[in-house]
Specification:
Helices cover 34% and strands 18% of the residues. The protein contains seven helices and seven strands. The chain is an alpha/beta fold. Strands 2-3-4-1-5-7-6 form a seven-stranded mixed beta sheet, with helices on both faces. It has helices spanning 21-32, 68-79, 112-120, 141-145, 154-172, 176-187, 219-227, and strands at 2-6, 39-41, 44-51, 54-61, 86-92, 100-104, 126-131.
Length: 229
């Protein structure tokens, strides 16, 4: 049994923001894999279901990002989860939009949701880092993460969500590489190798005229030939 947490902020105001990509990931997994309806519990929303042979509890904390750990700790205590059972889906400034990486343990890199989970549990849990890119300067980060994804990012975001859903069963079984491969097939599909390049049409050039044979006759012989003698 595992606890998967998606980080974000509650309410329609934040639904489409970059900071809520963790919520979006869990919503897509729950929908595609037939999880139960979302219910209010543990200061958040939970949904339960199975991925392969693994029972999974999905949790979207509603304590706002900075206090995410309160909700996660409440769920962990109720189900007797340890940090080894915990996977957190969160936005990652240090990855390009659409990129996905797995990380086990480590620091919070200034992410307030992770910081809160560290304080209530420990840092030794698995993270699914979902790239949103960086605005370029630290002073712009707060506004950037709380802004909606741009129209130009919609296809990228949909591809990423599809990939996360495709690989969810592999992630649940502990096969991180297979999970990442499934994501990559959606976000960076290989180019077709079956197509053939069109044949290059060769334009024929007219053949150069053959060079005249060198005249080796003497001047006297040339005169004789000219006047028929």
């Amino acid at each position: 049994m595992q606890l998967w947490v998606g980080l974000g902020n509650p309410g329609a105001k934040y639904a489409g923001t970059r900071h809520n990509i963790g919520f979006m990931a869990l919503d897509r997994i729950a929908e595609d894999h037939g999880f139960g309806p979302w219910k209010s519990k543990f200061q958040g929303q939970i949904s339960e279901g199975r991925l392969g042979s693994e029972r999974i509890v999905l949790l979207k904390p509603e304590t706002f990002m900075n206090n995410s750990g309160q909700s996660v700790r409440a769920a962990a205590d109720f189900y007797k989860f340890t940090v080894e059972d915990l996977t957190v889906f969160h936005d990652e400034l240090d990855l390009a939009p659409g990129k996905c990486r797995l990380k086990q343990g480590g620091g919070h890199a200034g992410h307030n949701g992770l910081r809160s989970i560290h304080a209530h549990l420990s840092p030794d849990y698995q993270r699914v880092r979902l790239g949103i890119g960086h605005p370029g300067h630290k002073d712009r980060v707060a506004g950037y993460v709380l802004a909606d994804f741009a129209k130009s990012e919609e296809q990228m975001l949909d591809d990423l969500m599809r990939g996360l859903s495709d690989g969810a069963t592999a992630l649940a079984s502990g096969d991180g590489q297979k999970f990442l491969n499934a994501v990559s097939l959606r976000t960076a599909p290989p180019r077709s190798s079956t197509g053939t390049r069109p044949e290059k049409i060769q334009t024929e050039r007219p053949a150069k005229p053959a060079a005249a044979p060198e005249d080796t006759r003497s001047p006297l012989e040339k005169l004789k030939d000219k006047f028929g003698r």
